[in-house]
Structure prediction request, 467 residues.
Amino acid sequence: MDLNEMKHWQGALILIIIMMLSVTGIYSQNINNNLRSLDNNHALALDTTGPKLYSNIKEVPLSRDGDMNVSFGGEIREQVRYYNHVNYGDVDAGEGESDMFLWQRFLVHTDWRLGSQVRFFAQLNSTTVFGKNSLSYIDKDVLGFMQAFLEIRPKSLPMSLKIGRQEVSFGIERMWGTRDGPNTRQSFDGLRYMVNLQKTKGSLLLVFPTSFDYGAFDNRINTNSLYYAGYWEINLKDNRKLDLYYIGNNRKELCLENDTVNEIRHTMGVRLSKTSGAFYYDTEVTWQSGIHGNLGIQAMHFSALAGYLWKDAFMSPRLQLRGRIYTGDRDSLDNRINVFRPVIARGPVNEMLLIGPTNIAVINPEGEVKLTDGIGLILRYYAVWRVSDNDGIYSPDMEYLSRAPYPDYDGKDMLVTKGISAELTFTSGPQCNGSFTWGYFVPGNFIENTGLGKNVMPLIFKVTYRL
Prediction:
């Protein structure tokens, strides 16, 4: 580690300590932890429980009647990751089996309300990385626009139109999300029409993904990939919700299994959830069809979650069980491809294992307790299998096979990995939160028979501060 990197690590440590010691009132209850464009700036401006600085930068009047105003905000995230035996010991030449690095993310945004019908939202992003063995597009972006959109709301109508660069998050991000785990989030350029009725919300999208480069203001629209979608959320009785969606994509020069082809994929899905109350659940089924090069597409995904929360009991214990299945290619000679592909989704296992959402089945029981009002402990167990013995394991971005069977491999070993993790979460004031996560994963027969098969021990320490 050179002197400059050491200075950045020291600076990050000082910043983390300051963030953890920062304690405010109940101000951030109206801050959206995922999409800052959904912040309730009006409630934040009226909040008198926190320092005046926070409320003074919300809804700064631009007109006498206050109908035109501007709000400011931002966030800082410091994340240290350590991996012992990267990829179960299989690394490229010149890279060490262990990797420890620092991710830093800085976001600043401004929200201009030009009357009740016109709004402009812009967010600058700066992400840096220190100490990482190899870099990719998710690691570093010196400076660029994460979001910059104009929103138009017709008078007296429950609808709006967003034009420009924007983030997208649907459901619990099994199909389409923000890619918040890594350093650089994902945004899209295009149009989004939204309608908000009494019990129903809907969105229609036509967008291109943003391609991120390492420099300043060098991000661009990726016109090789076009996404069009309709997503509807319907509120049912007893705090249940039904989501129905269609997502289409037209992608040129798509990489999969080391081939480059054009693809038209159609995705149809349904999700039924109940997220409040002692007993909660969330199920989702997705079917995909279309054309991949000259092959037909037949793929599917199923996820289920059920849990119970003893909110009034000592330490408010919670038990939960998750299960997920993503299809993989069954037969390389049947003129069909069964590889499931989301737009951009949360990791199907966790942030610790670089396993993409296809050709895997996952069972994941977990338990959680509240140690204090601001500290919680979550224990998880994971078991991961392949679904098709003809296919391998993919990277999280689905761009390549991260582990393929050897040519002379009989393909009958289905267990990929199993392991445990412990996550300690903390909140130091409502605006600052973080976590420390330890994991230990042992290779299954498939990993052992396609590589060195060493155990993996990851550590992740993360702190986020928002204003």
